[in-house]
Amino acid sequence: MTSATEPETPAAGRTAATPRLIATDLDGTLLHDDKTVSDRTVAALAAAEAAGIEVFFVTGRPVRWMGVVRDHVHGHGLAICANGAVVVDLHDGGRFVDVRPLESAAALAIVHAVRAAAPGASFAVERTSGIHYEPHYPPFQLDPCARIASAEELLEDGEGQGNPVIKLLAFHPDLAPDEFLDVARMAAGEHGSFTRSSPTALLEISGVGVSKASTLARYCAQRGIRPEHVVAFGDMPNDLEMLSWAGTSYAMANAHPEVLAATTHRTAANTEDGVAAVIEQILHGLP
Predict the structure, then answer these.
(1) Do 57 and 71 form a contact (C-beta atoms < 8 A)?
(2) Tell me: the pLDDT tens digits for 121-172?
(3) DSSP-assigned beta bridge partners for residue 56
(4) Do 195 and 213 touch, CB atoms closer than 8 A?
């Protein structure tokens, strides 16, 4: 049996393709619980890039929270943020390279449907310019530039001004996280892509078809990189599509049960540098 600090290797008889790209989530995966990047992980990321393996950070975070890894993306400088809704260039101050918006009409339909199905839900609207939220939405991350108003007002603001909605967030104070996700998908799944990455009942909602996987697949296709040449890491439901798409996927030891069930490989927890451990193993096996 594999130890808690030793990553599993492919099963006997399976030959993994030589990786060309490593796609890794951040929170709960690459980052320690204090939101830092360990020296071991920094060294592993740099060594992978030096060996010709591209590293993509693929996260639910908005670009304004990417400072912690800004100095650790090499080569292309790109990162996929907001669960695939945007691609940004961290070498160019977080400039938006690609935006896959959630249309305001769809967001409004989601708000109305989720409110009806789960009374007590509150919402925040993430635009390319920043986040704004309803009065009862918990201020998880205080933003002095945020506007506080109803979701209807927030969705009306910014239209036609080059400031698209990239993510709608929904919070419920009483429902369990997975229960809220199921209820919301049943009520409004036709209008958007629903997922979650928080331990609380906080949902992240993107446009239909927008996910970490779909955006990563687009950028891999542009580079001639097939899924079998991608190694992906994750820990929460918002990683599921990416982990299923990649040729090789690793769940962190601390991962959500659905992620553990959906992946064939395991590595150590984020607090034990599980991503770095696998990268070191990959590099050790290169010719």
Answers:
(1) no
(2) 999 999 999 999 999 999 776 677 789 999 999 998 655 467 899 999 999 9
(3) 23
(4) no
Please state the three-class secondary structure of 140-151 as a single string.
Answer: CCCCCCCCECCH
DSSP characters for 5-27?
TS---PPTT--PPPPSEEEE-II
Contacts of 224 (CB under 8 A, 6+ apart): none
**Contacting residues for 249 by C-beta, under 8 A, at least 6 apart:** 231, 232, 233, 234, 242, 243, 262, 263, 264, 265
The tens digit of pLDDT for each residue in 198-214 reads: 999 999 999 999 999 99
pTM summary value? 0.91
For residue 253, CA distances in Å to 35, 133, 168 come to 17, 34, 29
List, in sequence order, every beta strand (DSSP E) within 148-215.
165-171, 193-196, 202-206
Is the Cβ–Cβ distance between 126 and 82 less than 8 Å?
Answer: yes
